[in-house]
## 1
Amino acid sequence: MSSMSIIGLGIYARAIGTRAIEGGGATAGTFGTAPAGDIVILAVPYASAVPVVAQYGDALASKVVIDISNTFTAPDDTALVTPDGSSGAQEIAKAVPASAHVVKAFNTVFAHVLVLGRPLDVLFAGDDAQAKASVSAFIETLGLRPFDVGSLEIAHWLEGAGLLMMGLAGHGAGFNIALGVDVVSDVDDVPEVSTDKIAQVVRSYIKLAGHGSADGHRSADEVATLFADNAIFRNPAGGDVHRGIEAIRNAYHSMWDGREQRVDLVSLNVSGREAVVHVQVVFSGQRVDVIDVMTFDEDAKIASLRAYT
Ligand SMILES: NC(=O)c1ccc[n+]([C@@H]2O[C@H](COP(=O)([O-])OP(=O)(O)OC[C@H]3O[C@@H](n4cnc5c(N)ncnc54)[C@H](OP(=O)(O)O)[C@@H]3O)[C@@H](O)[C@H]2O)c1
């Protein structure tokens, strides 16, 4: 495995150093001494990065230099300081010895989130395949998931993503966030769920809805067990969205408690993991037609339910 050293002794150097030492692959570096190992992490502010790299000069020959810098303008973080058509990483690449390879990485991961030890995604960009392979392997040793985003030209967009993180953080999401890649399974890989099983869940749902008159609370508790943990419920369509079992249980509690109603199934169509259910709800002398559109997860739990009246 590659060994690495870090230039800089600030917040990020400590965060990444801690994780690297836990992963067993680091030698702690001291600023000013010749960097040890194959990988050198440049953990200084972008404004200092080029002069620092120039100062190290040939000590960086043949090294893989990881540039983690964010290049947004202070103090408002709304633009990048680098010239149009370039990036911090590309400017740093011009300053390292010709035999060194710069890889942009980690700039989209906040230091205080990194130290939590969670399995985060790390996006990286670079021009040299071998250098990227060793950065990718290094990222894995930290218990993180590497994602190659392309050549060093793409570093500009990674730096833009750093800006995006600041925008997210400053406009409601807060700073305890991490950028992740959701790899969605190929449609063909989605496990099938039997039509009978889905129909059975729908019938249980309708039966419980019809019980609402007798014991609204108990029925609401039971109906919640038919939903997936992170399910979405909207009744009627266009109304409030209830997310997660707890919110869904509460929504049914307030909807059904003490309400006399009967629910008659008119038609049920199941296709794949979707069901369209036509019921008539009879309450307070009224008969209301309701169309429920449901989707199901691989355990035949209701993933979403939208009711149209
Ligand atoms: N913190 C984060 O969450 C985060 C997230 C993504 C990317 N980054 C990037 O990570 C890099 C480091 O950030 P940080 O948060 O660790 O900052 P920091 O806590 O301020 O640490 C910066 C380090 O760089 C050293 N340094 C600055 N100028 C230098 C120079 N001319 N020569 C030698 N050393 C110099 C500082 O030494 P002195 O203290 O002696 O000045 C300090 O050890 C930055 O490029 C930042 O954009 C940070």
Note: The longest strand covers residues 286-296.
## 2
Amino acid sequence: MKSGTFFVLFFILPVATEAGFWDIFDMFNKDDDLLSFNSKDLENDLRKSLFGQHIAVDTVLKAVSWFMRETDPPKALVLSIHGQTGVGKNYITKIIARNIYKLGLKSNHVHTFISGYHFPHEEMAEMYELQLRQWIHGNVSNFPRSMFIFDEMHPRLIDTIKPFLDYTDNIDGVSFNKAIFIFLSHTGEHIIGNVTLDFWRRGCNREEIQIQSEGMETQIFEYLFNDKNNGFWHSSLINQHLIDHYIPFLPLELKHVHQCVMAEMGHLNMTQDYDLAYKVAKDMPFFPEEEKVFAVKGCKTVRQKMVLYLKLQ
Ligand SMILES: Nc1ncnc2c1ncn2[C@@H]1O[C@H](COP(=O)(O)OP(=O)(O)OP(=O)(O)O)[C@@H](O)[C@H]1O
Ligand SMILES: [Mg+2]
């Protein structure tokens, strides 16, 4: 890794504290390589694990499968994922990662940046820019099929990342055309919410919603373009067509939260109790006020809610 000690400390230490020393120890000892990519496995995983997100399932399946199959893609794959809290934005990155890397999200080749955590101080933006550039360059030079996830991108850092997303042959001898960049954001959630609610009110099937329904995709990037907080970084990406896919995550309905509770029971090795799962799901808050169709927190606090219904042994 071409990086200075401070740089290593800056990024590795927080990760080490978060993951635990033994996880880090494991990461360096296990075989941390690529899986042999199989689009059927990705499809099965997406369809089985991710509820209520047919646009995301289709788009991610096609985009990632095509990208993984190409021997010499023209540029890095860039996905911009939008939606309200708890609808599966981080979760889909986990699904993608576990279908590409043997260690999934724990792979050394997957790098997640959380804006408020990794880049907290405005006055240190210049240093972050330099470190981020070196980090991306160093890691891709070491392992071209690296994945970078930005959870709520910091506006100042986009110029740093932009060259890596572009149609450039190489930057200082390194090609970025096998790397994957994923941006997660709440931006545009109200547009996605309105379109989904409109479909529901008209009695239309949710699965009929497409990325361009009621101009959703255009509305999202117009919003990104004009929003003062996000426009700065998004506008240059939009202008230069560097984002390959905008992926709206729809708000989740009761039946999806119910599926999340059932899945959670499975993860906890509990007997899956349909009625109990229904009670737990029903107990979550829903919006809008009159119709109460969509879960305010999506599936985010399902596990905590479930604990309240369990009998202590
Ligand atoms: N659509 C979904 N299908 C299946 N499980 C889901 C879905 N959405 C959320 N979950 C469950 O809820 C958990 C929290 O979701 P996740 O972290 O992906 O939310 P998010 O969209 O990133 O929210 P936030 O914007 O608050 O970060 C996931 O780990 C997963 O277990
Ligand atoms: Mg998230």
Note: Residues 225 and 234 are 6 Å apart (CA to CA).
## 3
Amino acid sequence: MKRQSIGILAILLFGFFNLAAQDSLLVVQNSFKEEQKILVGALSGATKIDADHQLKGRWTAEERALTRTYLSKWIDQIGLKAEEQPYNMPNLNPLLDILIDPYEGTNLYTIVPATVSSDEYIILGAHYDTDRDCPGANDNASAVALIASVAKRINTLKIRTKNLLIVFFDQEEEELVGSKAFVRFLKSKPFNINTVLTVDQMGWDMDGDRNVELELPTPQLEALFKKMAIPLGINVYSTKVDATDHYSFREAGYVAAGLTEEFVHQDTSPYKDTPKDTYDTLNFEYLASSTYLVYTVMEALVTK
Ligand SMILES: [Zn+2]
């Protein structure tokens, strides 16, 4: 074969494999999108969550219990075991405990176990509660769906050298009570926690650039996210926002960061904590794209 023909063949082959790679990326993202539409639909009350209930929000004890039952079933279906962590937490001012009952809630978690013996854990979390009568499609059914999809796909990996703990926090909207209770629970376990990432609001992308914000990452986590984001054409901006669950972990001395839509860069849902935070305002393309990014980061972390 002439050198020129080899060159052309190489270009054709490269083009073919590149197309094939993009194709499979599209297939994976579409599968995320399909399952996430179902999850967000049920959690935000666009569809029924079981035969008898359609949620108005995830605020009351009953609404939160229905949410957990639904998510537990989903966890069972992907071949993992759902565990509940019920808790009581005192009010911020202990004197209030005399007047108001302490907080009562339940975190839900599951472990995608390492395939080799390991006490090391990566934690990926998202809160499932909302304010009263808020459907909370973006805040925070979006991130609940994101971590659910990541758990499912990480569970299909042949080799994992670390455990991945997926946690759905209760009562983030109440002074981060759920994640604080989960930190207290972790301290009582022999878990060696490598990294914590919590995700909050991941379904708004009006300008269509698919960019995300990483909140208070370590230099290592920031570098990993950026490395994985480049081939996907996503910009990862680091910010110093700490107003959500990752704060509870950092306060307790863990390595923790947050991930969200462009909150500081002002491409974020205007419907947060309102009855307008509905299913039909959610950008499922963006959610699937961000899910894929988090998946690649988690894959790197649990196989390293
Ligand atoms: Zn939130």
Note: The two ends are 42 Å apart (CA to CA).
